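Hey, I was hoping to borrow your eyes for a little while. No rush at all, and the record is pasted right below:
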Amino acid sequence: GDSKERSPREAAARPRAPLSGVYLWGNVGTGKTMLMDMFAGALSEAGVPVVRLHFHNFMLAVHAKLHAFHQAIPLVTVETPKGQLVHRHAVTPDEDPIEAVADVLRLTPT
């Protein structure tokens, strides 16, 4: 590879993959909500359907959908080589206690 250091201008000019998301952070009162309201307004004016939810309400909805999905999967009974009957779900979402980082990981496209 090229060991030459690039100037900030050269580094900024290099081709990049399109952004797939933006994460905003900052102290209270720094304009995060205002920026998101402006962004949602611009999308709405452009004809893009927008739903604005507080993060915790959004995650409650995600968990409700995951729970409904989990409940809709029929139990499968499997006999092991030793003759024991084992009940397994065909698909089992993670049921561990969920922390904020795990919530973000669930929303990350795979």
In short: Residues 57 and 63 are 10 Å apart (CA to CA). Residues 88-98 have pLDDT under 50 and may be disordered.
